[in-house]
Task: inverse folding
DNA sequence: CTGAAAGCGCTTACAG
DNA sequence: CTGAAAGCGCTTACAG
C-alpha cells in the first residue's frame, strides 16, 4: 500500500519542469490559441499582445514541445540527409575505397541554411545495391518533411521511387531530371585549372577524368577542351583518360597506363582529390617530384588535398555554400511543392597550394 | 462559394494515406490499447493476439506516428551526436585546420548500434568558445533522449552544464569523470607501433606526440616508453616531443625542430594521422624518402593515412566499433539512468601499409 | 489477458 | 484581433 503510493508520487524531471503553452497563456493573460499564433508568427496578432506573449515565453523559458507541434501540424520539422555510398561495410580507409568527403563537407554547410528555422537534420548513409528494394529508413518511418540526396550513386529507378513518396527533395552534387538540384560548375572549374596550367607555361597536359559511367565526366572533359581551344598558346601535346574507378586506385592505374605508354606530361589535372592522390602515389614511386618534374591541379578541395604531400592546388567547389543553398531550395520546395523545378550551379575558384610551378 | 468548397476537399497525401492504430485495431478485432501493447512488446499479450495484430500491421503497412508516440511517452526517440569542433567558420582544408575525421568515422558506426531500435540521430557541430554560454541546440530545443559527445574539445565547465540537463550522455574518444565514456586504448596502440619499429630494426626513434594540453598525451607517451622498456633490443637514441597544434602544421613544426636540432631518427611515430601528414610534408621538402630513409607509423587510421603518399602504416583504433559500442552504453544509460558509470576501452591493431621498411 | 477512458501539448477552423 | 473547442495518434494506468 505504502509502496504503491511512493511510486505514484515519483515524478520525472520533465514532469516538474515542463512549461507548456498553457503556462505561457496564463502568464500573459491570453488564451493558448493566441500564444500559438504568436509562436507561429501569425500576422493577425496585435503587436502589444505579441510582445506580452513573447515576454512571458522569455520569462518562463518556454520551448514548444516538438512532438505536439508535429502531431497537430502533421510535420516532423526534420529534414533528411541521405548520403549515397558504394557499400555499407566496414571502411578500410585504403585508397581503393570511396572517401565520402564530399557529402560530409556539404552536410557541414546545411545547418547554416537552417538557422532561424525549426528544422533538425537526420542523416542516413544509404547504398542501393545492398538495400535493393528498400527505401531509406528516414522515409519508411515517416521521419522527415524533406530530403537532401547527396552524391551521384543512384539511378533513375531509385529517383522514381523517391519521387513517388511525395517528399520534397533536392539532389546535391549532380544534375538530374526528377528533382531540384544544385551542383558545382564542373566545366567552369576544369576550365579554370586547365587555363592556369597553360598560363604557367605547361606544354604537355594530361587530364585524368572520372569514370566514363559518371554523367559528370562529359562536363569535365568539355572544360578541359574549351580551355585549350580558347588559349593563346597551344599545348604541344595533350592526353585525356578516364579512370576506371573513382578513387585513389583508379587514379594510380590511369597514370600508370599513361606512363607505361611512354607519355610524359609536364602537368596533370585530376577529376577530384581522391584520383589525384592515387596519381601522386604512382609518381612518388617513380621518383617523380611534384611540382619540379610535373605540376598538378586537382578538383574539389578537401582535407585530402589540403593535407597531401606536397599540398595540392585544386579547384574549390564551395561545398559549404552548396549545402547552404541546397537548404534554401528545399525550404522553397516544401513551402511551394508545385513550383517549377529549380536547378542551381555554383561557380568554383582555384586554390593555389604547392603543386604547380611556373615553367618557361 | 465553389472555390471555398474546392479548397476544403483538397486533402493532402498523408490525410488519405495515414494508417493509424485504430485501423489496425479494427482489422485485428482488438482495441487500440492492445495494438499499442503489441507494438511496445508487452509480455502481457497472448501470443495468438500478438500475431493477429502483427499481421494486421503488416497488411496495412502501418507505421506508428512518431510524434504521437513521443507526445505521450515524453520521448523523442532521437539521440544527439555532438561533434566538438575548434571553430564553426568556413573550412579551409589546409593542413593547419582540424580534420573532424574522427567524429565522422565514429558517427558512421553509431547507426550499427541502433539497428532494431526506433532511435534516429540528430547531429550538431558545436564549438565552445564561440557559443560561450549557450547549450547545443539539440538540448535547448529538447529534441533528444540521449547524447553522444565526440571528441575532446571541451572542459569541465561544459561537462557540468550538460550534466545538469539530466540527459543521458556518453563521451566518445576520451576519458572523463562526468559521464560514461568509450575510447581507444591509446597506451596499447602506441606500444604496438613502437614495438613493431623496434622489431624491424630501427635504432633511433622519435615520438611526435599531440599537444601537452591534451589529456591523452600522457597515455601515448607511456605506450612509447613502455615498449622501449620491455624490448629486448634497446634503441640507440630516442626522442619525444609534443606538437604545439593537433594538426598537420603542428607535426610539420615539430619535426622541423627535431631536424634543425640535428637529430636524425630512422623511424618516427606520430600521435595521429594529421600530425603524421605534417611530418611527411617536411620530410618531402627535405627530400627525405619514406620509408627508405625514415620509417613512419601513425595513429588512428583514416582516409588521410590510407590515401597518403606513400600509404601510411598506422594504428587502427576501430572507430566504427567505438561508435557501435557507444550506442550500447548510451542505450543502457537511458534504460537505467541511475546505474554505475561505465568506461570502455577498445583495443587497437596495427595496419601495415608502405611506410615501414625492415632495417638490418 | 484486454478494453474504455483520460490525457500528452499543441494547431486549426470557427465564432464572435 | 482573440477565445473555446475539437482533434492529431498515440500510451498508460485502471478496471474487469
Result:
Amino acid at each position: 500500500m505504502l509502496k504503491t503510493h511512493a511510486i505514484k508520487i515519483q515524478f520525472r524531471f520533465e514532469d516538474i519542469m515542463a512549461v507548456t503553452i498553457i503556462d505561457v497563456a496564463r502568464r500573459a493573460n491570453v488564451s493558448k490559441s493566441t500564444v500559438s499564433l504568436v509562436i507561429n508568427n501569425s500576422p493577425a496578432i496585435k503587436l502589444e499582445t505579441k510582445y506580452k506573449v513573447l515576454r512571458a515565453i522569455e520569462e518562463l523559458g518556454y520551448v514548444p514541445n516538438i512532438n505536439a507541434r508535429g502531431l497537430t501540424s502533421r510535420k516532423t520539422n526534420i529534414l533528411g540527409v541521405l548520403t549515397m555510398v558504394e557499400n555499407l561495410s566496414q571502411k578500410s580507409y585504403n585508397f581503393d575505397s570511396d572517401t565520402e568527403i564530399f557529402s560530409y563537407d556539404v552536410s557541414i554547410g546545411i545547418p547554416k541554411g537552417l538557422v532561424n528555422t525549426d528544422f533538425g537534420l537526420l542523416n542516413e548513409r544509404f547504398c542501393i545495391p545492398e538495400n535493393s528494394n528498400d527505401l531509406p529508413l528516414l522515409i519508411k518511418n515517416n521521419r522527415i518533411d524533406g530530403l537532401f540526396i547527396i552524391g551521384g550513386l543512384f539511378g533513375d529507378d531509385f529517383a522514381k521511387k523517391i519521387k513517388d513518396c511525395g517528399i520534397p527533395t533536392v539532389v546535391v552534387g549532380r544534375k538530374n531530371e526528377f528533382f531540384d538540384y544544385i551542383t558545382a560548375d564542373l566545366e567552369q572549374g576544369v576550365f579554370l585549372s586547365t587555363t592556369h596550367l597553360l598560363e604557367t607555361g605547361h606544354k604537355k597536359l594530361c587530364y585524368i577524368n572520372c569514370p566514363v559511367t559518371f554523367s559528370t565526366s562529359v562536363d569535365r572533359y568539355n572544360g578541359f577542351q574549351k580551355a585549350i581551344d580558347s588559349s593563346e598558346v597551344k599545348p604541344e601535346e595533350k592526353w585525356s583518360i578516364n579512370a576506371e574507378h573513382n578513387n585513389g586506385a583508379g587514379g594510380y592505374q590511369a597514370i600508370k597506363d599513361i606512363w607505361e605508354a611512354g607519355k610524359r606530361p609536364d602537368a596533370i589535372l585530376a577529376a577530384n582529390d581522391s584520383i589525384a592522390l592515387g596519381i601522386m602515389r604512382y609518381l612518388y614511386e617513380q621518383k617523380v617530384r611534384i611540382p619540379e618534374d610535373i605540376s598538378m591541379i586537382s578538383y574539389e578541395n578537401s582535407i585530402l588535398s589540403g593535407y597531401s604531400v606536397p599540398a595540392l592546388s585544386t579547384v574549390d567547389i564551395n561545398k559549404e555554400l552548396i549545402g547552404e543553398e541546397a537548404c534554401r531550395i528545399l525550404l522553397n520546395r516544401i513551402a511551394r511543392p508545385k513550383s517549377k523545378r529549380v536547378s542551381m550551379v555554383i561557380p568554383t575558384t582555384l586554390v593555389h597550394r604547392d603543386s604547380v610551378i611556373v615553367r618557361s
Residues 98 and 198 of chain B are 31 Å apart (CA to CA).
